[in-house]
What we know:
2 copies of one chain form a homodimer.
Chain A: H1 33-47, H2 54-61, H3 65-68, H4 75-98, H5 106-123, H6 125-132, H7 139-164, H8 174-186, H9 200-213
Helix pairs in contact in A: 1-2, 1-6, 4-5, 4-6, 4-7, 5-6, 5-7, 5-8, 5-9, 7-8
The structure holds a DNA duplex (18 and 18 nucleotides).
Amino acid sequence: xxxxxxxxxxxxxxxxxxxxxxxxxxxxxxxxxxxxxxxxxxxxxxxxxxxxxxxxxxxxxxxxxxxxxxxxxxxxxxxxxxxxxxxxxxxxxxxxxxxxxxxxxxxxxxxxxxxxxxxxxxxxxxxxxxxxxxxxxxxxxxxxxxxxxxxxxxxxxxxxxxxxxxxxxxxxxxxxxxxxxxxxxxxxxxxxxxxxxxxxxxxxxxxxxxxxxxxxxx
Amino acid sequence: xxxxxxxxxxxxxxxxxxxxxxxxxxxxxxxxxxxxxxxxxxxxxxxxxxxxxxxxxxxxxxxxxxxxxxxxxxxxxxxxxxxxxxxxxxxxxxxxxxxxxxxxxxxxxxxxxxxxxxxxxxxxxxxxxxxxxxxxxxxxxxxxxxxxxxxxxxxxxxxxxxxxxxxxxxxxxxxxxxxxxxxxxxxxxxxxxxxxxxxxxxxxxxxxxxxxxxxxxx
DNA sequence: GTCTATACCGCGATAGAC
DNA sequence: GTCTATCGCGGTATAGAC
Lengths: 218, 218
């Protein structure tokens, strides 16, 4: 688990965000920004952002501290990039539900929001994990929290509409439903790891089914 | 929100753990260990453990850094005490369910475990919040993680028994049920604050009902 | 019980050689 | 693109006066 240097050719990125020249290059690769970001996010999640030093990141990449600054302006920039990735993805997930055809019921939209959110949490697990742990200790973190609250409000609206529609039980305050429902979804980041036995789509359906139908045997 | 010094007479403790002489004392009170611990936990949760310095804690209490060390041996001791509080309480909660009368069904035991856990999360919210954020960065944290995993396993057993009994749906792996169920429960620490509109017992019943019955209108 | 002063260390970040 | 060396700061913790 401790700091064996990484192969520079292995970007470690789940998705290619386009900043990597990619295979077939010649000469010494060094590390591109995307690789550094991927490893930084992983370390931030393992140890916590504040407990992770630039020196830790350097060791992990097999470089010295100062070499990091050739690729990145500051430690906080790495955090900022990660939080943007998470927030943009989550926003997109909710947008899919909001953009459903007009005749779609509020309950169906909510279910879509849940399933799309699960997919995002799985696909961008490291970045979203980081987002969910942000406390607001700096302007970067505060603005991320603000964007996150905006997303929470969009979700709460979906829940309210579904309750008003009569599809969801009305013996629980809608705000509470919303918090518990997405508390369940968000808890995925605590244990889900890519390459497990359960694929993302199945997981999305299971989470939605458990939330809507409960865990009692039918 | 920023650092107005605390009244030493106000212990800030949710429960009196017995180390405070209490009201009616004469002379300069200073700060007892319990008060320092309560404020430390609050700050650790607001900013994160690593981002909180002894200086921050001193400012919050209206003291200097070095005065803290009259009450506490080290920053890590404060963390250790908080994690013990959380782990002992959670263990007790599960024990209540395990100690149910012999004729109690596994499903009933599980429901009790959920409700008792909610009560503990509410009553010891600050300490439990801290526990749920521990990453294992030091021996203290690692041993807390170990104890936490042991609790998770006891819970997973309860779920397995309930599935084996036929009371819970069997189309979802028991481990997954366990993780999602207590992911929901644990997510409470993210938003529950004492003195809100909803009392702990109602919340416990709501969480259990939502988990077992789902959020669909009946 | 709290203070001032300080030891000692590791942090983020920069300068400049290669 | 990476290195060595270093700056300045703030961290935990301690010593000793009051």
